[in-house]
Every structure is written in structure tokens, then in C-alpha cells.
């Protein structure tokens, strides 16, 4: 393949400190596309201007492009040359017009970067460096241009032609072709360019902005999917209103379009005025989408919409600044979602996600700072650290400054950097200037990788309690020694006798290696509540007993802290059980009973709080992960919880069993507790559990209940299991997004034979590596099924490596994203570690390996 390179070639490393302004600016570009899946002709006209005094040539990035013609100021140029994939044009003056022409083949673009074909439509994905696969251009985010786009295509196959900005003109051509022109008045970097051509229909709406501009909205899909777009359209309108209310940000064009595409490398893309989405984050109806899907759709629609300001109006100077737009925008979408429903449940979900993906990244071979210093392939840096830890960093600034000063800071940032390509430093400096706060030490959050650890010890002497804190940041690749971080810690004490708060919540900025806090005049024994609301993205170790944790799980007035106390109690119990083969389950059982039967609590919260930590999170607490022992300990606690609270689970189940579907916070909470209760009933070994699950499966009027029941059955041994798997498949044959769930549910099964079954599923007629969602549903899900993937035979590792080697030939970006589970070998015993390394070595030795995979696999071996 064109951009393949062998592992023996020295990869080029791009370094942040090497940043230089572009040699040439491109204030205007006109693109003319003669669209055809087999051969699309792309003519580009660039107005280029020399930036500063220098005599360097114009270097236009290209990736697998061959120039058909190159003109300088309208005259066929002769002096140009190729430097590897790039086009080099010597120029004499300070401003020139450059015309180039290339021919590309979208239908052969399996990487899904640049212009590609998906299910009969043509669409683009340019971030980060896909534009250079479409035309020759200085493909870097600090080159901002005004775009005019003209598309010509066969009218029958591609009746709809969309691009960024506003539609300007359209008309008929010869031979059944037609054309359309779009202009985007806002200068933008090439990564925000997009076009879509296809046989599409729109769910249309409109939104009137604060200042009275009417914006025409369109969610574009293939016609059978039209009925599944109302939720996304509604979420878009809510997002537009929210950004006005909370950040004072209005939309700025007359149209805003979203297109759903089935083959897509990640979630969605914020192209100016033309967002392109993975269809899984648009399409929803009760029969095919779970509550989780509905929430994710609203969150991703909001995320991409919010990028219009945090990303598009103010963009990134270079890709090292990626978290400037992504961390901030994730924080914005998290806040939006928190405002739509239960803020506590949203925070719990976000922290669970952070712990499942970012903490392991930060403690492994691919750890990197929120603002990285170097990369080989930038696509590998669209990570949980950039996105989710980046969002936590913004959240901490919000916590430290308070909402009003934070808003003053974002106002200043947007006003000062509108229309420019900015840096993380610009953001932090705006926050400081608007608030008067000193964030100098806080900046270490951008430079130091690794999850800080805090040990917190509360000791009491009479009426006084002393909280002693110590912090450390572990070494990470390239960063052996760390400085202390600024940790905003929300702290409160509760009286263990009365259950009453003994002080107001304190916000402590813990900045040194060690600190102390003294509480006076205490009338009873205090219990420590710390890092409330997860105010800092850290690991906290305390000297709290099981009784303290059980107490907090029932009495803390911060719901997140209640959840956290329960999780810690469960974790301590499970870790003890793994270490010694057994543990006292009674404190967990009592705490779960208390929460489950607390009528004052939101069922959605209860459902989160009573869930046991995942196998992999338990493993993260241990020096050497023992997947089988963890699985046994967790199953044993689940069984005991199921049996001891049998009556309570059944009562919780029966209370909501007959509910009809309704998409509302109450409806969602009821469905969540229903499936959690079903899981515990099954875990108890109750004779009727499978029948109960099957009845839920068959009788469901929504996908949440149906998939919840299928998940329970898929991990069990009842013959109803096969019946449900088959019935699900038959019912949804032909619906790709639901078939993804079918593959995924089986890949996540806790049964002994999951590895064999997943190997067989990889041969299923509906399995394909060409569709990223499908590849992730089977391979990605299996690789995070700790017990199955880490089967001591090593067959899980071999299977995943085989699949990734095959996937890399088609789609390096998607393949490289699935490397991290193999890179966690240091956390396992010698036998597993050796087998994991052997697979990584086999990957690295594969001829023609992409640089995406090369970077991830070689780093994972270190
Ligand atoms: N900017 C997109 C977002 O909204 C994601 C782009 C991901 N690009 C990539 N090469 N992985 O988050
Ligand atoms: Zn984003």
C-alpha cells in the first residue's frame, strides 16, 4: 500500500519544539471535483503568499498522489519536483496562483481517510492528515483558507452534493450529471474540509439563534434510516441552545448539516457546517438502540456541534495542541449531558470510562502527556489522555476558578483567538488573565504524564483530626522523575455516630509532596470524604476501614462520593479475596442492601452503585494480574450478592418489569436497574433465571431490555442461550448496527469457551474487517474481555494479532487503535507476558506494516 513502510525504515519523528510558522500561507482555495468512485478528478487552485522573508520553495503535502498537471500563474510549470510524496514548487514572487490536478480512486480507499466510498455514497475524512490524500496542500492546521468547492457527479447515483459552508449554486450538466457549488466564508484549516455525495434524504429542522439568525438544519441519511434521526435532530437543537446559554456561543452559518456514514474510523467529525458521523452516533429508535446509544448520540452530536467554536473558530496551531480542542470540547459535552439528566450518574459514567481507558494508558507503554512532545503518526494520539484526561484538566481549571471566572476566561479566549490557530498555552494564559489566578504550577498537567497517587491518612486525637496527604506521580516513558502537581481536592468530614456533616466542603489545592490539614472541635469520630465529585483525576489511597466505606456509601451527601465509597469497599473485598482465596462478603452485602432499598435514591444511581468493579479495574489494583483468580473472586461475590439479596433483587425487578418504553430519565433508570437486578438473579444460580431472562428478551419493547437479557444469557449455560442468540440474529439480520451488538455481546461473554466462539465468529458471513464498527465489535470487545483474552494458552493473543495484521493492510488507523491490550504485558505473569510480547514482535516483523502500527507495537514492546 502507498503509505506502508517496513519496520526497518527509520520512522520520522515530529517534535513539538521544532514548530515553525508555515513558509507559505494559502488565503484562498478553489476545489473542483469531478466525482466518480473509480476515478475522481480533483483540480485545486491555491492563492499562495510567502510568509516572511525567505527563499524556500512551496512544499505541498501529498499522500499517494500523482500530479497530472501543475500550473504557476496560469502557465504549465516545469520546475516542480517530488520530495517523496510531496510536491515541491520553486517560486520567485511573494504571491502566486497554483493550479494542480490529480486523479484519485475513492472506491479503493480502504483506509477511510481522504475521499472514500461507503455504501454507495462518497464522503471525506480529513482530520488529521487526510486532506493530502485528496489534493496537494500544506496540510497543517495553522494554514487557514477560504474554501470554494464545486462538485460534479452523476445525478442518479449522487443526487445530493454537500460541502462546507453555504450552498451557492447548482445546475445540470451533460450526460446525466449535475453540479453544486458551496462557499465557506470562514477561513479554516484543511482538516475541516468535507464533501459528501450520495442518494440521501434529510430530516430537516431549523434553529433561531439568540441574535435572530435562522439556521436550516439537516440530518442526512439513506432513506430507510430517516425514521431514526429525530433523536439526533433534537439533540442538535438542545446543543445549539445550550452553547448560547452556557458559553454565549452562537452558530455562524445559515445551514448546519450532519451526514451519517456506515464506514467510519471513529465517532464523528466536526467539519465546518458539515459534520460527518459514524451512523452509530446518529441512528436510533427504541427497537434498535439502547439507552446507552441514545445518550451517546446526544453527547456526540453536542461534541461535534460545540467544536464549531472550540476547534473551528479557534483551531489548533499544530497537532501537539490537539487537547486544546478535544479536552475542552469533551468537558463541554460532558457538562451538556450532565445538564440534560442526572449529573451524578453522568459523572459516575465518565469516571468509570476514564478508569477503564485512560488510567491504563497512563500507566502503560503508550503513556503521554496531555500535550505530547513527539509523535510518529498523529492518528495514534487521538487517545483517552488527549480527550478524557484533557477534559479533566479543563474541569479542574473550572473547579479552581469557579464558574464565573471560568466563563470570563473562555470569553477572553474565544474573543482573542477567534479566527486563529492557538495553543494550550493560549488557553491557560486566557484563564489566568481573566481570573487573576496563577496557574504556573498547574501547567504540569499538560507536560507530565502518569496518574498522580495521593495517600490520605486521617488520624484523630481527642477533638482534633489531622489529615496527612502525600502525593507522587509515577515514572512514564521518557519521564523518569516528576514534580508535584496541583490537585484540587474536595474534602469533607462526616460524624460516624450521627452521620452528620462536620464541616462545609473544603476545596484544598494540594501542591506539594506532602501537606496537612487540621480539623478542630470535633464532637465525634470523623470519617473522611475526599476527592468528592472526583475533583482531581488521581488515585487516592486512604486508611479508611470497611466500616468507614460502608458508612459513607450510606451517608455521604455527594452522590459521587457515595458511589466511590461503595466501589472502594467492593474493590478492597475483591483484592483481598484474590490475594487469599476468600474474603468476608458481608460488609458489601449489607452496603448493597442499604443502597438498593433506599427509597430516596434515584434508581439510575442505585444501578451504578451496586455494580461490581470490572475484572480489568480489579486487575489494575494488583501488582501482577491473575485473570482467573479475579474472575473467580468476582463471580463468587456476585453469587453471594445474588443469593443474599434474592428478595431485594426480585422486588427491584418486579417493580419495573411491566414498564412500557419511554425515553426519559425515569424510564432509563428503571431499565438500568432491571437488567442489573436480572444479572444478580442469574448470578445467584436461581433455577428460573434463564427463563426470566428469556422472557425479558422476547417480551422487550426496546433494545436496552433485549440486549440486557441477551448479555445475561450469553454468559450463562442454559440452552436458552443459543435460542436467544439465534433469534436476535434472525430478527436483526441486515441491520449492521444491531449486528455489531450481536458480535460484541458474544465477545464479552464470561463463558469458558468465549475464545473459541470468537474465533468462529471471525469466520461468520457477516464478519468483515472492512467495516471499523464490526472489527471493533468483535476484535476490540474480545481484547478487553480480560479473562477470555488472557487465556493462558495464548490463543486470544494469537487471534487478535492475526486479525490486526490483516486489518492493518486495509485500515492502519483502526488496526493501531486495537494494539493497547497486547501492550499491557508488563502487568501479567511471565508466561503470559512472553506470549504477548511474541505477538507484538510478530506484528513488528510483518512486511509492509503501516507506520501507525509500527509506532504502537514498537512502543508497546519497550
Ligand atoms: N475531531 C474528531 C472528534 O470530534 C475526531 C477525529 C479523529 N481523528 C483521528 N484521526 N482519529 O473528536
Ligand atoms: Zn472532538
TrEMBL record:
InterPro entries: Aminopeptidase_N-like_N, Aminopeptidase_N-like_N_sf, PepN_Ig-like_sf, Peptidase_M1, Peptidase_M1_dom, Peptidase_M1_pepN, Peptidase_M1_pepN_C, Peptidase_M1_pepN_C_sf. Its EC number is 3.4.11.2. Keywords: Aminopeptidase, Hydrolase, Metal-binding, Metalloprotease, Protease, Zinc. It is an enzyme of class 3 (hydrolase). One of its GO terms (molecular function) is metallopeptidase activity. Residues 547-861 form the Peptidase M1 alanyl aminopeptidase C-terminal domain. Gene3D superfamilies: 2.60.40.1840, 3.30.2010.30, Neutral Protease Domain 2, Peptidase M1, alanyl aminopeptidase, C-terminal domain, tricorn interacting facor f3 domain. It comes from the Bacteria. Pfam families: DUF3458 (PF11940), DUF3458_C (PF17432), Peptidase_M1 (PF01433), Peptidase_M1_N (PF17900). GO terms for biological process: proteolysis. It catalyses: Release of an N-terminal amino acid, Xaa-|-Yaa- from a peptide, amide or arylamide. Xaa is preferably Ala, but may be most amino acids including Pro (slow action). When a terminal hydrophobic residue is followed by a prolyl residue, the two may be released as an intact Xaa-Pro dipeptide. Its cofactor is Zn(2+). Residues 450-542 form the Peptidase M1 alanyl aminopeptidase Ig-like fold domain. Transmembrane segments: none annotated. Residues 232-445 form the Peptidase M1 membrane alanine aminopeptidase domain. Residues 109-192 form the Aminopeptidase N-like N-terminal domain. Belongs to the peptidase M1 family. PANTHER family: PUROMYCIN-SENSITIVE AMINOPEPTIDASE. This is Aminopeptidase N. It comes from Sphingomonas hengshuiensis.
Amino acid at each position: 500500500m502507498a503509505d506502508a513502510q517496513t519496520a526497518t525504515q527509520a520512522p520520522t519523528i515530529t517534535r513539538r519544539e521544532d514548530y515553525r510558522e508555515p513558509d507559505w500561507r494559502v488565503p484562498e482555495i478553489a476545489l473542483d471535483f469531478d466525482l466518480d468512485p473509480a476515478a475522481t478528478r480533483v483540480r485545486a487552485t491555491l492563492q499562495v503568499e510567502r510568509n516572511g522573508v525567505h527563499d524556500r520553495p512551496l512544499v505541498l503535502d501529498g499522500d499517494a498522489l500523482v500530479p497530472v498537471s501543475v500550473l504557476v500563474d496560469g502557465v504549465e510549470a516545469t520546475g516542480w519536483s517530488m520530495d517523496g510524496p510531496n510536491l515541491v514548487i520553486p517560486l520567485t514572487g511573494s504571491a502566486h496562483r497554483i493550479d494542480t490536478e490529480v486523479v484519485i480512486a475513492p472506491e479503493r480507499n480502504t483506509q477511510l481517510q481522504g475521499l472514500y466510498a461507503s455504501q454507495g455514497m462518497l464522503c471525506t475524512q480529513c482530520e488529521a492528515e487526510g486532506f493530502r490524500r485528496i489534493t496537494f496542500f500544506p496540510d497543517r492546521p495553522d494554514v487557514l483558507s477560504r474554501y470554494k468547492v464545486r462538485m460534479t457527479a452523476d445525478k442518479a447515483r449522487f443526487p445530493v452534493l454537500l460541502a462546507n459552508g453555504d450552498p451557492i449554486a447548482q445546475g445540470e450538466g451533460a450526460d446525466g450529471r449535475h453540479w453544486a457549488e458551496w462557499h465557506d466564508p470562514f477561513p479554516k484549516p484543511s482538516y475541516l474540509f468535507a464533501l459528501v455525495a450520495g442518494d440521501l434524504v434529510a430530516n430537516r429542522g431549523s434553529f433561531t439563534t439568540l441574535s435572530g439568525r435562522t439556521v436550516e438544519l439537516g440530518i442526512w441519511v439513506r432513506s430507510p434510516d430517516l425514521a431514526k434521526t429525530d433523536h439526533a435532530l433534537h439533540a442538535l437543537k438542545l446543543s445549539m441552545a445550550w452553547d448560547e446559554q452556557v458559553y454565549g456561543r452562537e452558530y455562524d452559518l445559515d445551514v448546519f448539516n450532519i451526514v451519517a456514514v456506515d464506514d467510519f474510523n471513529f465517532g464523528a467529525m466536526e467539519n465546518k457546517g458539515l459534520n460527518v458521523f459514524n451512523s452509530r452516533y446518529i441512528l436510533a429508535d427504541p427497537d434498535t438502540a439502547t439507552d446507552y446509544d441514545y445518550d451517546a448520540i446526544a453527547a456526540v452530536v453536542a461534541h461535534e456541534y460545540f467544536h464549531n467554536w472550540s476547534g473551528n473558530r479557534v483551531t489548533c496551531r499544530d497537532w501537539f495542541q490537539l487537547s486544546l480542542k478535544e479536552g475542552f470540547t469533551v468537558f463541554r459535552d460532558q457538562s451538556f449531558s450532565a445538564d440534560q439528566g442526572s449529573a451524578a450518574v453522568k459523572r459516575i459514567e465518565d469516571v468509570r470510562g476514564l478508569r477503564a481507558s485512560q488510567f491504563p494508558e497512563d500507566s502503560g507503554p503508550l503513556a503521554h502527556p496531555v500535550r505530547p512532545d513527539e509523535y510518529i503518526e498523529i492518528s495514534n494520539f487521538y487517545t483517552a489522555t488527549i480527550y478524557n484526561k484533557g477534559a479533566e484538566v479543563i474541569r479542574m481549571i473550572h473547579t479552581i476558578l469557579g464558574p464565573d471566572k471560568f466563563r470570563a476566561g473562555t470569553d477572553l479566549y474565544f474573543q482573542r483567538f477567534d479566527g486563529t490557530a492557538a495553543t494550550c498555552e493560549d488557553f491557560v494564559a486566557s484563564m489566568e488573565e481573566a481570573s487573576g489566578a496563577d496557574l504556573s504550577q498547574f501547567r504540569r498537567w499538560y507536560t507530565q504524564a502518569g496518574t498522580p497517587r495521593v495517600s490520605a491518612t486521617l488520624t484523630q486525637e481527642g477533638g482534633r483530626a489531622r489529615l496527612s496527604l502525600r502525593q507522587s506521580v509515577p515514572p512514564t516513558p521518557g519521564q523518569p522523575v516528576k514534580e508535584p502537581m496541583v490537585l484540587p481536592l474536595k474534602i469533607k468530614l462526616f460524624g460516624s455516630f450521627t452521620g452528620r456533616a462536620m464541616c462545609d466542603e473544603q476545596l484544598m489545592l494540594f501542591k506539594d509532596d506532602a501537606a496537612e490539614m487540621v480539623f478542630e472541635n470535633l464532637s465525634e469520630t470523623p470519617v473522611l470524604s475526599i476527592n468528592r465529585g472526583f475533583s482531581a483525576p488521581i488515585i487516592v489511597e486512604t486508611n479508611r476501614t470497611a466500616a468507614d466505606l460502608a458508612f459513607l456509601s450510606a451517608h455521604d451527601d455527594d452522590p459521587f462520593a457515595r458511589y466511590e465509597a461503595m466501589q472502594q469497599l467492593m474493590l478492597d473485598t475483591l483484592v483481598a479475596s484474590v490475594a487469599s482465596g476468600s474474603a468476608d462478603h458481608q460488609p458489601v452485602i449489607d452496603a448493597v442492601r442499604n443502597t438498593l432499598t433506599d427509597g430516596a435514591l434515584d434508581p439510575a444511581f442505585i444501578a451504578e452503585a451496586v455494580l461490581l468493579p470490572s475484572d480489568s479495574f480489579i486487575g489494575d489494583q494488583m501488582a501482577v494480574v491473575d485473570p482467573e483468580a479475579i474472575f473467580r473472586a468476582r463471580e463468587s461475590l456476585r453469587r453471594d450478592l445474588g443469593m443474599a439479596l434474592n428478595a431485594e433483587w426480585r422486588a427491584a425487578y418486579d417493580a419495573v418489569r411491566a414498564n412500557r418504553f419511554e425515553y426519559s430519565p425515569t424510564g432509563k433508570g428503571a431499565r438500568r436497574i432491571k437488567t442489573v437486578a436480572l444479572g444478580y438473579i442469574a448470578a445467584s444460580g436461581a433455577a428460573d433465571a434463564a427463563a426470566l431472562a428469556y422472557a425479558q428478551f422476547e417480551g422487550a419493547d426496546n433494545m436496552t431490555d433485549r440486549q440486557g437479557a441477551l448479555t445475561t444469557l450469553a454468559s450463562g449455560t442454559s440452552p436458552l442461550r443459543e435460542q436467544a442468540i439465534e433469534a436476535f440474529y434472525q430478527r436483526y439480520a441486515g441491520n449492521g448496527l444491531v449486528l455489531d451488538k450481536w458480535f460484541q455481546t458474544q465477545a464479552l461473554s464470561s463463558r469458558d469457551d468465549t475464545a473459541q466462539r470468537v474465533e468462529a465468529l471471525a469466520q461468520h458471513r457477516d464478519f468483515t474487517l472492512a467495516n471499523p464498527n464490526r472489527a471493533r465489535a468483535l476484535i476490540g470487545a474480545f481484547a478487553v474481555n480480560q479473562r477470555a483474552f488472557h487465556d493462558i494458552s495464548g490463543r486470544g493473543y494469537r487471534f487478535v494479532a492475526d486479525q490486526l495484521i490483516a486489518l492493518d493492510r486495509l485500515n492502519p488507523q483502526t488496526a493501531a487503535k486495537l494494539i493497547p491490550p497486547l501492550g499491557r504485558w508488563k502487568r501479567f505473569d511471565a508466561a503470559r507476558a512472553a506470549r504477548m510480547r511474541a505477538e507484538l514482535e510478530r506484528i513488528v516483523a510483518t512486511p509492509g506494516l503501516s507506520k501507525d502500527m509500527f509506532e504502537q507495537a514498537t512502543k508497546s514492546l519497550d
